[in-house]
Amino acid sequence: SLYHEQYRPQFHFSPKAHWMNDPNGMVYMNGTYHLFFQYYPDGTTWGPMHWGHTTSKDLIHWEEQSIALYPDSLGYIFSGSAVVDINNTSGFGKDGKPPMVAIYTYHDPVKEKTGSSQFESQAIAYSLDAGRTWTKYSGNPVLQNPGIRDFRDPKVSWYAPAKKWIMTLATQDRITFYSSPNLKQWTKESDFGAAKGAHGGVWECPDLFPLTYQGKEIWVLIVNINPGGPNGGSATQYFTGNFNGHTFTPGDTLTKWIDYGPDEYAGITWSNTGKQKIFLGWMSNWQYANEVPTSPWRSASTIPRTLSLKKTDGVYRVASVPVKEVDKQIATSQTFKNITADFAHQPAAKPLKISLQADASHDFELTFLYADDQKVKVGYHASTKEYYIDRTNAGEHSFNRSFASIHHAPRFSGEKEINMTLILDAASVELFADEGLTVMTSIFFIKSPLQVINSLSSLKNIRIETLNGIWP
Ligand code: FRU
């Protein structure tokens, strides 16, 4: 039945049917979290892009809405963001009601075919009924292409000190910042990144926001990149530093990743959530997104994650942990202490939240065992200080040669004890180690239900919690 098909995530958003990629227009308004997404309603592979729409009161249960934006004569509707224009700077508001404004990229496939490099531009649309129906601005596009092939994915936020909007835009191998008083006229401020960070692929889907560390404001610049991720294909890198309303200056020259796994991409944060920053990504990878064996939908979102700043060895790092609303879904909880070896537990057939503590001086590994010796392994190598997820024997993988592999991520914490939380769903595992300093997301496609959780190494303790599924 609907939402209970084979491989269907039971704890993550996925569209009822058809193709999804990037999260778009994430905005919080009047008690509702809006999630728009790159959507192709006529098939299960990437096609002419629309903005699909889903809403949630708690970031866990989602109700899919009707399509928000359809392609038109200016092109497909590519990725972008949405804001609540509280001061009605755009003038789209009516009767004192602030408009919701979407800022998105037009990708013109006709112009693209002519060989022109100017087929991407930025445009806006507004909604006066909290995202249900949309009117495209008659003056579109609001930002013309200056001759840059990859010119897309505007993330807009209000910069209070100068009372202006800032657009953070991916422009091929860099980020370009623009400013505007009204979301309609945009002025270029500066470029960042031509020789900074990872450049194994094109820069896409950026985000810019401040976080505080011990009372100090530090700016985070998220830059998604495809390919060139740490485990191949697409991934989310970020920089920490300062933004003064005109330019971004990084505080270090390191390449840092929000999620080191293969299956978190195009992740950005919700707008209008105050000081709290909540992040969500597309749970796939362009290497095989179009080929994964699901039907009648393709792709899911990651679990929403709360971001914070931490400092290790003098370096600021963004940590992400599952939003606290996850815990409201806990149905049962069992804790096992001082595990020496040969731990085996048969969990209920539900999504699971698993939390463990282990001594960082030795290796450990959890095996999730399914029928026919299919398994997902999650562990830690003390000698290399690396976490890993192994999906080499995790069900269906014949759809793509690069899929069945082991993925690694560095540990940054120097603590003697490792804390790890896993969210295990029907077709994914998300690993949050050391309070979110190292994060990895992997998808997999095993037909049968989970049978046993095994550990052959010593663990200080492990807590296994079943989560109520989110679909009716
Ligand atoms: C990232 C991306 C964006 C683009 C969209 C098209 O996955 O390539 O840069 O706007 O997907 O669907």
From TrEMBL:
The lineage of its organism: Bacteria, Pseudomonadati, Bacteroidota, Chitinophagia, Chitinophagales. Belongs to the glycosyl hydrolase 32 family. Residues 12-313 form the Glycosyl hydrolase family 32 N-terminal domain. SMART domains: Glyco_32. Keywords: Glycosidase, Hydrolase, Signal. One of its GO terms (cellular component) is cytoplasm. Residues 331-446 form the Glycosyl hydrolase family 32 C-terminal domain. CDD domains: GH32_Inu-like. One of its GO terms (molecular function) is sucrose alpha-glucosidase activity. Pfam families: Glyco_hydro_32C, Glyco_hydro_32N. One of its GO terms (biological process) is sucrose catabolic process. This is Glycoside hydrolase family 32 protein.
